[in-house]
Amino acid sequence: MARYTGPKTKKARAFGEAIYGPDRSFEKRKYPPGQHGANRRRKKQKSDYAVQLLEKQKAKYTYGILERQFRNLFEKASRKSGVTGEILLQYLEARLDNTVYRLGLSPTRRGARQLVTHKHILVNGILTNVPSCKLRPGDVISVRNKSKNLSVITDSIGANSRNNKWSWLEWNADRQEGKFLEYPERDNIPEKINEQLIVELYSK
To answer: What sections of 81-131 are H helices per DSSP?
Structure first.
């Protein structure tokens, strides 16, 4: 399966939630896409499997990762002691592209991924172009010197109030540098994902 690059609003409508952030088009049409999407009488009761699968798909599209990557993260989370679903979300939040997004260097995860792959981001002073790079507490994420004046980055920083919003991240605006302090607690992760359904799906 290739990474999804299609219409974001259409995918958000399929999940019934603005998974890519504020979306005026989604707010106007909060029903599934297709000619029968607005017809509530055609809505059928979903099976447990369908509900679990939909939740997994929502998590994958929210964080912009593929099935194999997602399963590998789940298997790593299941081997750790603790609550598997919570650890899975912590691993997703610790991805480099997601952290670049959380720091406000890009208004979207898709844009953050592009910043990483185009070699604009450093981790602990080392150029890193792997979006799935897993960060550890204490890691420092910064903008490459040559890229600090890019309008896509400066505009995002100027328009974003996310820079100091997350308790597990620290941001220095003057240096365009952030630090991954710790893995976030589940209550601090804002995504509306029922991770227990994902655990149940993979446990079958």
So the answer is: 84-93, 96-102, 109-117
- Ranges for all domains in the chain classified under CATH 1.10.1050.10: 8-91+192-202
Residues 6+ apart with CB under 8 A from 146: none
Do 184 and 168 touch, CB atoms closer than 8 A?
A: yes
* CATH 3.10.290.10 domain position(s) in the chain: 95-182
DSSP 26-79: HHH--S-SSTTTT-GGG--PPPHHHHHHHHHHHHHHHHT--HHHHHHHHHHHHH
Q: Is the dihedral of CA 67, 71, 77, 78 positive or negative?
A: positive
95-182 has CATH 3.10.290.10 classification: yes
pLDDT score for 1: 42
**In the chain, what is the straight-line distance between the N-terminal and C-terminal CA atoms, in Å?**
22
Closest CA to 154 of 106, 199, 84, 203: 106
Radius of gyration of the chain (CA): 18
**Burial status of residue 144 (CB atoms within 10 A of its CB: 0-12, 13-18, 19 or more):** middle
**Cα(21)–Cα(108) distance, rounded to whole angstroms?**
8
In this model, does residue 37 exceed pLDDT 60? Answer: no
With 0.90 as the threshold, say if the pTM is over it.
no
- For residue 181, give both structure tokens: 């302090």
Q: What is the CATH number of domain 8-91+192-202?
A: 1.10.1050.10
